[in-house]
## 1
Amino acid sequence: MSKAGLFLHTTINFDEVAAALDYGQRTLDHATYAKVTNAFKKMIFHCLLWIFISIIICCGTVLLSHHIQNLKTNELLTAYNATTFRGGVRTSPTTVMYTEGSSYQYDVSRLGLNLDTDFPHQRALTLLLDDQNQLKGVISNDESNKITDIFAFGLVFGMIEIAVIMIVYAFFVRKHTSYGKKWYAFMKWFETRDDTLLDIIRE
């Protein structure tokens, strides 16, 4: 297991952490064990702090993507003078319909559309409607999905951000903080019983 992997594993595996702390309390001198517990407390505090920070960043990304999706949706509806959109299907080259409680059918020829030429390979379409449920436009599902997928992309990207931040945090703590070095040395000592690692803890 890599050093960063071991650090993450021993941070998350609470049973192993508890066993290591119990063994350390019974085996190490008071001063050395005090440094171990102090390093553990600092590690937990900073880990929780960075989890909180990463969640805030994730939420910011999700909210931003939701805002952008709303802007794009409003732009689309405004362009067609519509107020909402519904998923519909073509029933002929000049008619579309959607069902929501009742079935609604529309003649698209009055909009200058011919579904065989404008949407030749698509049966499912997105209908743009006004407040009176009148058809204002028809677009492909691919076009509408580009907008609705913005939020999903933001959510996935936000989760990736959390993972990346925590992995970077694990590397940083292991390499560049005294408490991270002490904790890693302690867990490595618990695993290998190599007493030379205790020198790192006692520094």
Note: Residues 30-79 form the longest helix (50 residues).
## 2
Amino acid sequence: MILSFLQENPQDQKGKLDVNPTSIIEKLDTWLDGFIKALPNIVVGILVFIAVLFIARWLGRIIKRLLKKKGRQNFGEILGSFTKWTVILVGLMLSLTIISPNLSPADLIAGLGVSSVAIGFAFKDILQNWLAGILILTRQPFEVGDQIIVNGFEGSVEEVQTRATRIRTYDGQIVVIPNSEIYTNAVKVITANELIRSQYDVGLGYDQDREKAMRILRETIEGIEGVDKSKDIDVLPWDQADNWLTIRVRWWTKSDRPTVVKTFSKVILETQNAMDKANIDLPFPTQVRIHNAHDTRR
């Protein structure tokens, strides 16, 4: 059947199936000769790239170890990885120029520039978070273990990664916040200083001895464990409400949350007990309810 078809269409088949085995063999020989000539360059290029891989890994580890000894492990992880991949990229470009001498470094850089623009648009958020992470680790507005407030989240910093920062809230939950949000928003670092001030308002009845009450408040707070003795304790008349005079007390403690919370609880409890023993009235808010006469008849 195939023979009959070829016989019926000799001209068409000559135009379509004009295959010269000699030209194919010559083409293959040309490719093989080119490969054999380029083989030394290919071997050298591969060996150079393998050597660069070992050097890049070695440099990355050295940087991580040095910064870890200085207490900046997270920054060491990022800088070590950045150095490793930069060296690998340079080594890859060098290997390609060895394998293909006609390919100049300028051509590679130009191609890399075009690719970088495309990659930048595709991975804009990732790159933004990565750069923000480097800036955070470089400038160190806070460190691992610090207590911070950012975007309404409050807790202890557990880890600063290349993309995000991990915070453990006081109730044990993990919050992962992108580094770009941390870098572009206000961050309150609670433990930035060794000491922090707390305050508490006490309502004192207008018929009470104000001087005596303020003296008792001061003496009570001075004797509470956790209150820093090197700082002054403030006991100040602060506001006049309808039924009491507001006395604001201020004291200093260590800035870590356990100390702040425990000391605050002691201040509330012990000042209340001291006032009770001295028979000083701490009035509660008073509310007067007036019932409508029409409603009471129903």
Note: The chain has a mean pLDDT of 80.
